[in-house]
Amino acid sequence: MKYKENWEETKERFIAWWNRSSIGRPLMRIIVRREKPIEELEEEKPFETPEDFHMDAVEKVKRYRNFLRTHKLMAEAFPHLSINIGPGSLSTYLGSRPNFTWDTVWYEDIAREGWDKIGALKYDPENYWWKRHQDALKTARELSNEDFIIDIPDIIEGIDILAALRGPQNLCYDLMDIPEIIKDYMNQLDDLYFKYYDPLYDLVKLSDGSCSYTAFEVWSPGKMAKVQCDFSAMMSPEHFREFVVPSLRKQCQQLDHSLYHLDGPDAIKHVDAIMEIEELDALQWVPGAGKPDCGFEGWYPIYDKVRAANKSLQINLYDGDFNNWVENADKLVKRYGPDGLYIIFPEMSEAQALQLMEKAERDWK
């Protein structure tokens, strides 16, 4: 891989992380800004519209190559590019129209007047956004030439897609008023998910069958996905177990590796149920806006449960400065050990990166 010097070693270390086995220190993502580019930079043109910002594969590949020419990927950082129709593009494949903004993509709630307005959910190979997304990924994959990975996009699954199609408030009422209809739609989505996932995986996988999933900084030797239920913030633990856990379990059973994206304090109440999904491999915690980063000791009870369930952890550190990052990482390693622990660090100088690597090799065994 052109922009990753220790790629074969990195793959072995990721396999060890998924398996909660030892690599002699935690898995770490470390990115350094170079003093000068390693290749001549290509001219970048401004995106004319938010839609171009999200979907112009040619320009996004060019810009990402420029990023790789000006940055060094150390430890287990690896080069990968995401091209998403927002967080939940499965909604668009099922008929919702995307509303592109510079920050994200919103989806038209086409079932807001009732589920009878859209009927059964069906795979549509001629859907405009499904074809458009595949074309963008195919273009990016060809242009990448395996110098870097093109990620599986953030298609999302299950009840989060129903919330996008129906609207979150309406769906809250549906769980109480028409639970059997919602369960039927969940089953439909379970059947549809891999009809969309598999073609996307086939488009972007490397020649060895490995892949990475959107912006979650994880590589897998086989089929892998980030799984989630952000709507769970509005669900009781009983409803989560009833409506969501069976769907997540079925999804994880069909993947080689899976990472759960736990988003925000209101989702913490579901950690026990999530940890009961034996097929799930790892958890990533996102504290939410205005909350301390993942190094905060107040989040340790989450990690305690993950460790008790023998699953891997991804921890993102970003509060404070370099010394804060190292101090918080040190506490995490001492409490949980290095095996199955993956720490994401912010961009830093090469001198800081070398200092961090030296400490990790010396003290975090």
What does this structure look like?
The chain is α/β, with parallel strands linked by helices. The protein has a single domain (7-363), classed as Alpha-Beta Barrel (TIM Barrel). Helix content is 43%, strand content 14%. The chain has 13 helices and 13 strands. It has helices spanning 7-18, 50-55, 57-70, 90-93, 128-144, 158-166, 168-177, 179-204, 237-253, 271-275, 300-308, 322-336, 350-363, and strands at 27-33, 71-75, 80-81, 98-100, 105-107, 149-150, 211-212, 219-220, 224-228, 257-263, 282-286, 312-316, 341-344. The strands form 4 sheets. A 7-stranded mixed sheet has the order 2-1-13-12-11-10-9. Strands 3-6 form a two-stranded parallel sheet. A two-stranded antiparallel sheet has the order 4-5. β4 (98-100) and β5 form a beta hairpin. The chain is globular and about 60 Å long. It starts with 6 loop residues before the first helix and ends with a helix. The mean pLDDT is 97.
Short description:
Helix content is 43%, strand content 14%. With 365 residues, the chain is α/β, with parallel strands linked by helices. It starts with 6 loop residues before the first helix and ends with a helix.
Layout of SSEs?
Blueprint: H1 7-18, E1 27-33, H2 50-55, H3 57-70, E2 71-75, E3 80-81, H4 90-93, E4 98-100, E5 105-107, H5 128-144, E6 149-150, H6 158-166, H7 168-177, H8 179-204, E7 211-212, E8 219-220, E9 224-228, H9 237-253, E10 257-263, H10 271-275, E11 282-286, H11 300-308, E12 312-316, H12 322-336, E13 341-344, H13 350-363
Parallel strand pairs: 1-13, 3-6, 9-10, 10-11, 11-12, 12-13
Antiparallel strand pairs: 1-2, 4-5, 7-8
Helix pairs in contact: 3-5, 6-7, 7-8, 8-9
